[in-house]
Write a structure and sequence with these properties.
By secondary structure, the protein is mainly alpha-helical. It has a single domain, classed as Hydrophobic Seed Protein, CATH 1.10.110. It is 52% helix and 4% strand. The protein has five helices and two strands. It has a two-stranded antiparallel ribbon with strand order 1-2. A hairpin with a 2-residue loop joins strand 1 and strand 2. The longest helix has 19 residues.
C-alpha cells in the first residue's frame, strides 16, 4: 500500500530525503561533501529519490557534478540510468 520496492512508506522516503538534503546542503554551495553527506548518499534508497526528480528540478541539476558527488562518496552510478527526469550519460 504505497510502499516502495524497498518496503519504505511515503513518510519514510520523505524523511530520508529531508535528512539527505540537510546533510548535503553545503554541496549546493560548492563545498565538498562531508562524511555525513557521503553516508547519506550511500544509504539512501534510489526509490525514494528518483520519483521527485521532476523536469523542473532536473533543469537545476548539473548531472555530471551529481554523478561525481555520488561516485566520490563510493556509490556507483550506472550509465544510461533513468532517475526521474534525468538519464545519466
Amino acid at each position: 500500500m504505497g510502499a516502495s520496492a524497498a518496503g519504505l512508506s511515503a513518510a519514510q522516503c520523505k524523511e530520508e530525503r529531508r535528512i539527505g538534503l540537510n546533510e548535503c546542503k553545503p554541496v549546493l554551495y560548492g563545498k565538498l561533501p562531508s562524511p555525513s553527506c557521503c553516508e547519506r548518499v550511500r544509504v539512501s534508497h534510489i526509490e525514494c529519490v528518483c520519483p521527485v526528480i521532476t523536469p523542473k528540478l532536473a533543469a537545476l541539476i548539473d548531472v555530471n557534478r551529481a554523478i561525481r558527488l555520488i561516485e566520490g562518496c563510493g556509490r556507483r552510478v550506472p550509465r544510461h540510468f533513468k532517475c526521474g527526469s534525468i538519464t545519466t550519460p
